[in-house]
TrEMBL record:
Residue span(s) of domain Tr-type G: 32-188
Domain of life: Eukaryota
GO cellular component, one term: eukaryotic translation initiation factor 2 complex
Molecular function GO labels: GTP binding; GTPase activity; translation initiation factor activity; tRNA binding
Reaction catalyzed: GTP + H2O = GDP + phosphate + H(+)
A Pfam entry, by short name: eIF2_C
Its job: This protein promotes the GTP-dependent binding of aminoacyl-tRNA to the A-site of ribosomes during protein biosynthesis.
GO biological process, one term: formation of translation preinitiation complex
Recorded family membership: Belongs to the TRAFAC class translation factor GTPase superfamily. Classic translation factor GTPase family. EF-Tu/EF-1A subfamily.
Organism: Rhododendron williamsianum
Annotated keywords: GTP-binding, Hydrolase, Initiation factor, Nucleotide-binding, Protein biosynthesis
Designated name of the protein: protein-synthesizing GTPase
């Protein structure tokens, strides 16, 4: 179901060679530019995100807060979006009340924590930024420790487009603010980033969730959700994917074994907007058919989501089939192209076209 003011996406007419970060059918539904907020702790990063976007980043599922003395400390990077709910909302600038605004860009704000003990979390967020807002509080000397560290971090990440914001000027006298302003670089424009829509899709996973709640009925249970930003290529609904390295275990000899996770995309979301396809840039939620225990509590953070070829069965492999309320083992007796013939260990009554679930044994568990 499409929300009011959103451009239609038709998967049957998708031509990735014609896509652009500013294509109307793209920016109407999802952000294509990631803007990070960086700087020292308590310099006002989360407050600025709320002031610009109208959304408090911490209320989104991807961030949490804890009281620390007299300030609020962001523990995880949060996200908020700078896009109106209407396609052409009325302008609220004095003198232009009768004019309508036009959506030119759709951005995601990646709100990073500023405390020194959470530097690793900040670096995870920096990996997907196209530009950044560096917050510098005018009521403190410049630079503060994390101001320097965050700026060095984004330089290491080769982030060239940074806007420096002098914040909290209302707390000091005008002459003090002017003196500090002279030492701070002026705003710089963030250009449209170049995006690669042609290559096979590649997405960095920076959050993962189990969206199911206790008490859900069996038919209400949904697969795991991966959140992140697409670096290149286009993801589509119903596309087969694989997550690598996947399930990592050690055998009895101490050798590490990696088993890729094969799945299929069942939904794509940017903010609350449902997508038929998603392009590089912005923060995307990917609903899958994965076992939700694999995505629970950020277990897939740092993994890479790519295009896959679906479930690959090998001859003589033993699988677990769930048909209705019945579970039974099955042995693969033949494989040809995308078809497989299975021999069940016990008879099950079913019908043509009925949905079944296949599980494969991974580290003594069926998944």
């Amino acid at each position: 179901m499409s929300r009011k003011g959103l451009m239609e996406q038709d998967l049957s007419k998708l031509d990735v060679t014609q896509l652009h970060p500013l294509s109307p059918e793209v920016i109407s539904r999802q952000a294509t530019i990631n803007i990070g907020t960086i700087g020292h702790v308590a310099h006002g990063k989360s407050t600025v995100v709320k002031a610009i976007s109208g959304v408090q980043a911490e209320v989104v599922q991807t961030a949490f807060k804890v009281e620390l003395t007299d300030c609020e400390l962001s523990l995880k990077w949060g996200k908020a979006y700078g896009s109106g709910k209407e396609d052409s909302p009325m302008c609220d600038v004095p003198g232009f009340e009768n004019c309508r605004m036009k959506l030119l860009r759709h951005v995601s704000f990646v709100d990073c924590p500023g405390h020194d003990i959470l530097m690793a979390t900040m670096l995870n967020g920096a990996a997907i930024m196209d530009g950044a807002l560096l917050l510098i509080a005018a009521n403190e000397s410049c630079p503060q420790p994390q101001t320097s560290e965050h700026l060095a971090a984004v330089e290491i990440m080769r982030l060239q487009h940074i806007i420096i914001l002098q914040n909290k000027v209302d707390l000091i006298q005008e002459n003090v603010a002017i003196n500090q302003h002279e030492a701070i670089q002026k705003f710089i424009e963030i250009p449209i980033p170049e995006r690669n829509f042609i290559s096979p899709p590649n997405m960095i996973v920076i959050r993962s969730f189990d969206v199911n709640k206790p008490g859900f009925e069996v038919d209400e249970i949904r697969g795991g959700v991966a959140g992140g930003s697409i670096l290149k290529g286009v993801l589509r609904v119903n596309q087969f994917i694989e997550v690598r390295p996947g399930i990592v275990v050690k055998d009895e000899s101490g050798n590490i074994k990696c088993t890729p996770i094969y799945s299929r995309i069942v939904s794509l979301y940017a903010e609350q907007n449902e997508l038929q396809f998603a392009v590089p840039g912005g923060l995307i939620g990917v609903g899958t058919t994965m076992d939700p225990t694999l995505t629970r509590a950020d277990r897939l953070v740092g993994q890479v989501l790519e295009a896959g070829k679906g479930f690959k069965a090998a001859k003589a492999e033993i699988l677990m089939l769930n048909i209705g309320s019945m579970s039974t083992g099955a042995r693969v007796v033949a494989v040809k192209n995308d078809l497989a013939k299975l021999q069940l260990t016990s008879p099950v009554c079913t019908s043509r076209g009925e949905k079944i679930a296949l599980s494969r044994r991974v580290e003594k568990h069926w998944r």
